Amino acid sequence: MNNKYRILIVEDEKNxxxxxxxxxxxxxxxxxxxxxxxxxxxxxSSHNPDLVILDLGLPDADGMEFLKKIRKNxxxxxxxxSARSDxxxxxxxxxxxxxxxxxxxxxxxxxxxxxxxxxxxxKNAAAPEKTAGGVFRTNGLAIDYGARRVFVDEMEVKLxxxxxxxxxxxxxxxxxxxxxNAIIKEIWGYNDLNSTKRLQVNMANxxxxxxxxxxxxxxxVNELGIGYRMCENDEEN
Length: 237
Ligand code: CA
Prior knowledge:
41% helix, binds calcium ion, five-stranded parallel β-sheet, 21% strand
């Protein structure tokens, strides 16, 4: 057991906090909780958590304010917990630096999986040489970063430079949903009216080359209206 991670829950609904606390403690995490944005910011500074679970609907302010405030100085992973099913809220939170989101009502197993993934991702972010060498693997997909070559079930798939860049970017952040906007900025450096369409066309071509049928999410999950998520690296599980 090496998961003595400290998690800060910022959530005003007491029963959710209680359930979450019990669940997280059972999974070996240390838990601190706040019921308002203000209180959350205070506890964040005093406890220096490894991860934050953030409710967006807080009594004193929008949870987005908490997110924007801490993102000025910290890269601590934040998972947004929200009753809002509106895609725009999720996109806004992700673009403001949230690492992931879970929509209420959520399954505990799903949430714990997202927490593990976010913690693992933040650990990896400390190793920027990741794409310099090494191979990413998930469900039979292999990306050789050194050679910039991609294989599906040991067969090489020929990708364009742009397609490769998209895949490599998604894989470096595997397990995390990346918004259309974040991917576009990384790949093309600018965002115009046709960017989303261009990204979707590239993704469709990548899926075709990978032999994925429409609706199949073997390697890449399309989070509709939000962005894409690459399945996690097998070797880190
Ligand atoms: Ca709330």
